[in-house]
Amino acid sequence: xxxEFYAAAEKILSDLYNLFSKDxxxxxxxxxxxxxxxxxxxxxxxxxxxxxxxxxVPHIYCYAYKNLxxxxxxxxxxxxxxxxNTLLMGALLLNPDITTFWNMRKELIRSGKLDPYFDLHxxxxxxxxxxxxADLYAFRKWILKYLVQSSRNNENLFExxxxxxxxxxxRYSNNxxxxxxxxxxxxxSLPNSLQxxxxxxxxxxxxxxxxxxxxHYRQKLITFLLSYIDSRSYDQEVIKLILFSVDEATEGxxxxxxxxxxxxxxxxxxxxxxxxELSLNSDLIWNFVGHEALWCHxxxxxxxxxxxxxxxxxxxxxxxxxxxxPADGTPPEKTPxxxxxxxxxxxxxxLSIYEDMFLxxxxxxxxxxxxxxxxxxxxxxxxxSKFRLPLNEDRDNPVFRGSYK
Amino acid sequence: MxxxxxxxxxxxxxxxxxxxxxxxxxxxxxxVINKKLPKELLLRIFSYxxxxxxxxxxxxxxxxxxxxxxxxxxxxxxxxxFQTDVEGSVIENLSRRCGGFLRKLxxxxxxxxxxxxxxxxxxxxxxxxxLNLNGCKNITDxxxxxxxxxxxxxxxxxxxxxxxxxxxxxxxxxxxxxxLTNINISWCEAVTENGVEALARGCxxxxxxxxxxxxxxxxxxxxCLAQYCPLLxxxxxxxxxxxxxSGVSKLALCCPGLHNVCLSGCVRLTDASLxxxxxxxxxxxxxxxxxxxxxxxxxxxxxxxNCRLLxxxxxxxxxxxxxxxxxxxxxxxxxxxxxxxxxxxxITDDGIRSLGTSPCSAEHLTVLELDNxxxxxxxxxxxxxxxxxxxxxxxxxxxxxxxxxxxRLRNHxxxxxxxxxxxxxxxxPNTSGSRQRYCRCCAxx
Lengths: 405, 445
Hints:
Chain B: It is found in: Membrane. Chain B: It is a lipid-anchor. Chain B: Part of the SCF (SKP1-CUL1-F-box) E3 ubiquitin-protein ligase complex SCF(FBXL2) composed of CUL1, SKP1, RBX1 and FBXL2. Interacts with calmodulin; may antagonize substrate ubiquitination by SCF(FBXL2). May interact with PIK3R1. Interacts with PTPN13. Chain B: Keywords: Calcium, Calmodulin-binding, Isopeptide bond, Leucine-rich repeat, Lipoprotein, Membrane, Phosphoprotein, Prenylation, Repeat, Ubl conjugation, Ubl conjugation pathway. Chain B: GO terms for molecular function: calmodulin binding; ubiquitin-like ligase-substrate adaptor activity. The structure holds two protein chains of two kinds. Helices cover about 60% and strands about 5% of the residues of chain A. Chain A has 16 helices and three strands. Chain A has helices at about 5-20, 55-75, 80-95, 100-110, 115-130, 135-150, 155-170, 175-190, 195-205, 210-230, 240-255, 270-285, 290-310, 345-360, 370-385, 400, and strands spanning about 30, 45, 50-55. A three-stranded mixed sheet of chain A has the order 1-3-2. By secondary structure, chain B is α/β, with parallel strands linked by helices. Chain B is about 40% helix and about 10% strand. Chain B has a 14-stranded parallel sheet, with no helix packed on it. The longest helix of chain B has 17 residues, at about 10-25. Chain B is globular. The interface between A and B is medium-sized, with 21 and 23 residues.
């Protein structure tokens, strides 16, 4: 009886193959939970959305799997590429987690029997069904590398890929694989994509406040941005919008601390980026109460700020405010410690005041979750990062004494 | 030493063979087989071997190399299984070895074959009669030109999917190969009516003309074929959408020997074509008219009355036909073996009944395709019980067919393959396990 169905399975598989080759607009795949009653094709296509009825899934998969395993025994030249392709499509559509089958597809592509663009489409459809399939992303990465070796318009390729990642992340929260793939795509299209991704990831994190994978992506993005700025040959035009928004945020941040000598112009660009990120994060925490991912991201921000403040590699950012001591001609490389009157010290002071105010605001009795995270954050700050909260110790600091009320 | 490397596998075997042989005897002159058998006999033995075995033998010893690679062993060569390995140099070595001996060569799917090596082949192997170049996408008009110049005996040529081939090829072939009987120019999309006309004028012995998917082939081309090639027996115009009734009528009128006709996808054809075929081509045995949606019962009635030798008919998507067609076919075509009625949505159980009750077709009918005929019910299957020879029935998407109906049919015809979407039923759980009401430990206790 099982063998009886094989002819039908073959027909269904070839129908699926034809659908994919005839309709390049096909956008999604789904399995419908249906119990079979009639002698009716299990394939449904509605407005470029493909669906398969569930009753046939095990049979088709068994058929495809068995045949493919037999097929692998046949020595290379006698293989029927088209049949192999049809079987592979069926098997991978239903279960994309088999590395062997993806490798067989790679073989087909490499021998010129399969169009890599066709597979980009095919896999994008599978992604709507299983958006969290690591093998699939690995395969796409392989295809893209393969195409980059041979083709011209790579920019478009990665832009498209990033959109697909976004769709996959939308379908499955905390989709680590999709975001990792997106990071890879980002590295392939640097630096042109920086600005676009900056805006896109901001939008994303604003809408998905508890998806840490999205935040992780943003952290990577910021790292890339910093290293791009560090490369010193950077083009202002490429990141114009980022610079603009960052400046604006810094002005806003410093608005409450007017009594200090610090202005937006004296703060180095890299630090401004984190000021921007910090105010964004504060807004989100304030608006969306009790999401751990937000607090984790805040830790990243503080960690990075601290690193920047201590970073001896970029002394040019830390020109002293106190110019009364010009004899000290030695560059500050040798003094990674934050000088008392440097921009760094002043900034860290402002930051600790800001953070203290923020945490106080968050410690609301009515929101135990938020309070819990705020306390945790406070502890973390005290322990790992040496930002001293001014209320406790720094009262004798002259700069501080003049302002905070 | 080796003529060409067909596959590394072959080589491996030969090495093995060689070591065994040379291990036993030091000099090949002393080898028993060479002593006992004269060269002529060895040659004769080799002539029965296939390509792979010959290549293996050629690596055994110098004597055998000469014998195995003798052109007389290489009259018919099919390199389809080695298509990816076949490069230009292979063809050139092959043509030098075979020379005038080569009669038949198949290079189907050997995509890396190019004009230059084909030119060498044409120069050396002037006696080639049957050449299959299907899927050799790189060859152009130059190949056909050299073939036409040298290979006067060429009678069968397959140029399917050689998309660079144009009218010019057909013109040179028409001038150079008057003995051509079979030609296949499927998917050579550059070919137009001019090329076909020239071919028809130059090759009056043409028996088989296959041009699937040649969109530029028109009525005029078909008329010319009909006019100059009266011996035509096989015509395949699958997907030649611009063909019309007048061309097919003329073809039927001039070529009474037609027995295999494919007009699938020629959407402009009407009953007039069928009537013409019915009037003139009484030996028609295969007719494929899938997708000719204008054909009606009238046309098939005429056909069934006159073409009593029909064996295979593909009527897929002839959406206008009704049970009447089946009644006429059942009466008029006793040899019917294979009948496809896919997507003929007006067919009902009555039509199938007449098919099932016609005694002769019941004797021969082996394949019946009824997929997507929504009016077919289990009753149809009961009518088919009398068709003893029936091997396959397609019932995909016939939504009135039930499992029970198929089971009944299978009870009567145990060897039949019924293709439907019914998934295999999982066997019911073993009911003999009633004693397992208690778990094992309780039973022990």
